[in-house]
Amino acid sequence: MSALSFTPATTDRRVSDEDRAAILAAPGFGQHFTDFMAFARWHAGTGWGEDALIPYGPITLSPASAVLHYAQEIFEGLKAFRHADGSIWTFRPERNAARLQRSARRLALPELPTEDFLASLRAVAAADEPWVPEPTGEASLYLRPFMFANEDFLGVRAAKTVDYYVIASPAGAYFPRGVQPLVVWITDEFARAGTGGTGAAKCGGNYASSLQGKAEAAEHGADEVMFLDSETHTCIDELSGMNVFAVTSDGRLLTPSLTGSILEGVTRESILQLAADRGLEPVEQRLVASEVVEQIAEGTITEMFAAGTAAVITPIGELRARGGSWTIGDGGSGATTLSLRQELTDIQYGRIPDRHGWLTRLA
Ligand code: COI
Predict the structure, then answer these.
(1) Which residues line ligand 1 (CB under 6 A)?
(2) Whose CA is nearest to atom 6 of ligand 1?
């Protein structure tokens, strides 16, 4: 039973049916926002309260708000999927709730109980029901819960007032070119996260620290950047906002092990399970970048892909680095990659049985 109820506000500030239909026809990623957002505030001493479902709109912050200075902020990413019968579901939200709690501990923020997290998602999905795309294509409603320090205080300590919101945004493919094979640049200059740092937390700072690497990738004609571990600059960590996988010719699915600097992706965990279900051997290990490119060159790594809630599963066609470039397989979308993608999205859209009980009904 959740303590917070996120009671809807009445509003006449809804996007018109016509404008919403135009947005849903080509949503892109993260560009358009719905009519409502969920809100709750935490005060040290009294805990979570002030919960409401309010019209989507600007937030007023004091220039002294702690988040603007010390980046005490965390977030999550989930999707709401419409099934053929009109019902609305999300994928493994309890895993996102648990990760938000782990991120909160790392960033000295208060933990939001799982039931309250689920209540906030349900409130937004119910109020924004017309925004959940029809299940004809692969669009969904991206849900973005986030939490930040909102105390006007410039001393460095954990804030005593913290705000939590859930906003929603209709989403198509994350990458502008759609589900086309990515070119990925391996940066030898920048690291995303370091030992003992915040790499495993889903905090804004990790994504800010990825931006210069992404810009370097773009300078080399690549779509994405691959970060190596900060200590030895040899082992693959992840991309700017996705985990990374490799398929081998002898039936293994490789992904970097969780060393503390890698995000514990819900999609990552689900793919490892789907791989095992179909007899692919899931292997979590340290992946040395120089060995990976050698195995691509000799044909023992036949496919690679990026995985995350937003990216779903997106094929990688080529790795580039200062020392050369390596085409993976024939540079196209690998058969295993596409078939895992199909299976995952078929489960999410209710097109095949949810054999692991991964779906939760929102509305
Ligand atoms: C997600 O996949 O939900 C993320 O938060 C990653 C971000 C790059 C959009």
Answers:
(1) 77, 241, 308-310
(2) 241
For 133-177, how does the pLDDT look when each residue is reduced to its tens digit (9 = 90+)?
Answer: 999 888 999 999 999 999 999 999 999 999 999 999 999 999 988
For every residue of 102-130, DSSP letters joined together read HHHHHTT-PPPPHHHHHHHHHHHHHHTGG
Q: CB-side exposure of 125: number of CA atoms within 13 Å? A: 26
Distance 242 CA to ligand 1 centre (A): 7
Distance 339 CA to ligand 1 centre (A): 22
- Rg over CA atoms, the chain: 21
Q: How far is the CA of 45 from the centre of ligand 1 (A)?
A: 33
pTM for the full predicted model: 0.97
Q: Helices then strands (H, E): number in the chain?
A: 9, 17
Fold that domain 17-171 belongs to in CATH? D-amino Acid Aminotransferase; Chain A, domain 1 (3.30.470)
Say if domain 182-348 classifies as CATH 2.60.40.10. Answer: no
Domain ranges of the chain: 17-171, 182-348
